User: Fold these one by one.
Assistant:
Number 1:
Amino acid sequence: MIRAGAVALAALLALDAVSPSAFAAARIASGGAPGHVAAEVSAQGCKAMADRVDAIAGDAPVLLRSYDGAQGSGEIDTPALRTAAFTYDNALAVIALLACERRVEALRIGAALERAAMHDTRLRNTYRAGAVADKVLPNGWWDATQNRWVEDAYQSGTATGNVAWAALALLALHDATGQVHWRDAAAKLATWIVDNTRDAGAGGGFSGGVDGFDVAPVKLGWKSTEHAIDLVALFTRLADAGAAGDWREQAAHARAFLDRQWDEGSGHFLIGTAADGNTPNRSASALDVQWWSQLLPDAPAAWRRAIAYAEHHHAVGAGFDFNDDRDGEWLEGTAQAALAYRVAGRADAAARCLAEIARQFSAGGYVFATREERITTGLAIGSASTSADFFYYRRPHLGATAWAVLAARAWNPYAARR
């Protein structure tokens, strides 16, 4: 028996060729999940992101700061975040703004990402927020204690998944405009991934990227299931868009690694490998790979078991935690869950997640990253870390807001919308 939510989603996907306004109208008319809650989340999130772009006068390329102050206004108490525009967050914002029918704002952020893709030696994890003039600038800050300018090794690094998301954002702009320069910039980023991270050995897949500064970059040997999902989508989209290159073979290479990360016994995806690039990493459980795998257009039906795994091991209240210690709610992941539920036709579950998100908007308009003051991930920030020092905090977050909009508008970032 086909669920009503799945029928509604199929009807929406058939509208790819119509205007954005017709797409939105049809979505509302379908009666699909989750009604007024989705409209509320969409309206707040779209306005917040568009207002941030519009606040920077003119039409210059722009990158948005990823985090606000703790209460949604005021200065951020962490120097490394005060002007930090994370590439991943801005790529998500491009796709979400297109879903919002705010093309002008999406194009301004996209132009900044394109400039970084075409002119930086490699795409960084983070740049300096604000208007972009001749070139994108690395993020940094003045440290009064050391009396010098400081930059961060992780922010200056290049994670494979972040490059993939920037390329997906550029492809979304290609789909929206038909202009091939967006596709070609995405292909340039994808070529960097292949040239610098592809493992031709028995382990296959693609490594994590590069950490640190150009003077002494550190290659990351571990491989990520999350990155593999991104790359399957990216390489397939490049092939479909007619980009020059053997992108279907690259997609198959990423998919082969992804398939090896599926744990049939427990019905979930492993987080990836250890630093050697081969040993399965069973020490941590990651929420996002369980949801993102559901978004791939050709996801096997067997992968739906990962939803039950996430519900059993990561659920916290009406939402989900990043890892399985369940010490708090990760709202970005809760939004990802809402979108995956909609793809799976589970309207009621999507509605519960979106209702939780609707309660977590800050005064400045962004969704908070977490419900609690701090939650763990079980992961390290970078190659120099000696402990699991990657935490999420209760700060208003661009990335969480973008995912909330994508979920509210039933917009799959892995699928072409033309």
Number 2:
Amino acid sequence: MLITRDFRPSDRAAVEEVLTTTGFFNAAEMHVAMELVEERIAEGPDSHYRFLVAKDGGITVGYACWGPILGTESSVDLYWIAVHPRCQGKGVGKALLLAAEQWIREEGKLRVYIETSSRAQYQPTRVFYLATGYVVDAVLDDFYSPGDGKFIFVKVLSPE
């Protein structure tokens, strides 16, 4: 049974394992992801970053991380959704996204932005976002490196 809950410091190693096992993230991306985890651990609920973890049978199978966009009234960046490869395609990512969107709504935010690479390996990720109601708001060619652009997705949430 899948359960999503707020992040706890004891989740650090499991989140790192999920990130590592996906095989998607390069060293720089891993460094950034773990910096966000470390900040959340250091600052607790006062952190800028919000986290949800997905557990199945007590085992962490995925996580999501987002935070408000400073200087905006109602916008957030969804930084990461990562699901362990053995659980991909089983609804874990969608459950995390829906739970995150609910939390985002409860914080009074209604615009969710997601950035992802244009590399071929991210095609399933882009399809996932489109299938969950996000639209491509912009594409920045060669953003990350030559041949690796940035897709920016947005979804406007309906207020409760």
Number 3:
Amino acid sequence: MRKALFFLGILNDADVEWMIAAGAKQHLNPGEVLIQEGKAATSVFLVLDGVLSVVARAAGNKEVARLRSGEIVGEMSFVDSRPPSATVQAVEPSSVLAIPRRDLADRLSQDASFGARFYRAMAVFLSDRLRSTVGLLGYGSGQTLEDQASYADEIDTAVLDNVSLAGARFDLLQRRLRAI
């Protein structure tokens, strides 16, 4: 959920409404593949509920992450236009909001303010993911970055100011899409 708070805390209400209108709720059964490694992704996904497994060939076909409510999926391929570097599949019954790549690209090219908020949100989201990954891999002499930084779990105050608003936006998004 923390990831959605980063993302939705930077976007505004109109951006979230656009995402709901442009996207489509997609249900996944256990074992169903959402994104296939090496195959172009046609959407960016926001996990609404459930659990998704991320498996990468580069990691010996091992699970590298579990994604839950509030995670963004397919964002790296959207940003760099490269095929996905991992396969994402449902572990349990799950649902996502699928925002078509083409619609998102059109919106970004037509609305510079939306683009600025979207890419800022994406940068904060990906930065947090990278910090977590580096922390898991370890840093320096057996210490993680978290061990070396007293502020490791702190959230930027600019983001923190919007946490309750972001939570309300995610709740709205889930409520509006629950009926679908």
